[in-house]
Amino acid sequence: xxxxNLKNRSKLLSPPVHTADFNxxxxxxPQLPNSTSQLSQIVLIVLAFLxxxxxxxxxxxxxxxxxxxxGPISAGSIxxxxxxxxxxxxxxxxxxxxxxxxxxxxxxxxxxxxxATVLILKLPSPEGWLGASSFALVLGQLPRIxxxxxxxIMVGWYINTKFLxxxxxxxxxxxxxxxxxxxxxxxxxxxxxxxxSIIMSGLMSAWSSxxxxxxxxxxxxxxxxxxxxxIFTAIFTIPAAIIVSYLKKLGIDSYPRKINPFNVGNPITTxxx
Length: 273
Hints:
By secondary structure, the chain is mainly α.
């Protein structure tokens, strides 16, 4: 029996079931069509997977420099926007609490990966093997990169998620593309200023002494890191908004009632009428 049967589409297109904030009990809610419950599970698992793998990929490749018409840019600037994109989709469809749970799950996965990598790098290499220095150059900076992005991503995630959901409340869930781009832009600018300045200043040893001054290079990387994130977000949020709109029609949605973006506590929510 297929997990999601499109023959039940007439049931799925009933008005979305809005909740104060998504919780995992919803996945087995007997009041929801069975196919909607199953679809919710699939969507959440896929988005959580993409979210975590994107975060981990970003901290591994951030030190890779790419030649471009505007000068050197970090490969992390291409990957990081997708982390914001997947986070917005999770927050919009499943709410703040699920977004927060997946955020901390991703951080746990990252710190496990980072320190497992560091321990493996410290194991002795066989005599005559020339790859040890290359591995150390690429992966040896992971602890510094992780803790720099941890501070930055906490700030960026909080601002992004809170404003996305606050604006959702104010305009009754409309204009997802605009809300996602605007809230992501704020989070990405703060993320870039904090993370890129710390990370890139620690990676300057990979540049030759003949390169431009480290100070100017770090400023260049920070500015273009933020700009590229915003540009990629604006582009790829278009297909994301189409997917989110379709999933809402199928009944997957979480509707916040009261969220203060400056309140560091749990959001207070009540079901919509």
